[in-house]
Amino acid sequence: PFLRLLEAQLQDQRRDHEEEVEALRNEVDAMREELEKQQQAFLQTLQLSPEAQVEFGLQQEITRLTNENLDLKELLEKLEKNEKKLKKQLKIYMKRVQDFEASQAMVPAERRQHERNMQVAVQRKEKDFQGMLEYYKEDEPLLIRNLIT
Q1: Would you say 11 and 19 are in contact if contact means Cβ atoms under 8 Å apart?
Q2: Torsion sign over Cα 67, 56, 54, 59
Q3: pTM of the predicted protein model
Q4: pLDDT at res. 20
């Protein structure tokens, strides 16, 4: 059983490695093709007159900026869509809070006092825990901000 487990892990690692090597080969091939295209374009521009070289350079820059603008527009659309989604969620949560506050206003004072006592007990239990905290590196700014507030 142990050898089979090791064998299976080794096969998984080999498969992952082969997939990674294949992806890297494809990336190298794509880069090689791009380099060849750039070399061809460079050689063509060397054969052009200085005015034509400037015009060609401007066309290349316009193409690059157009592609960059398209990427930025796509990103903007995603962010706007996410903003709308978050605004809807905020409205829902605000409504829930208002409903909860309204229901709390109707609850007898004794029950509210009992709930407060339970909250205090829970808070005290939480304060008793001390120790190490595990977190992801990319969550560090959020964690620090939450600790400060």
Answers
A1: no
A2: negative
A3: 0.39
A4: 96
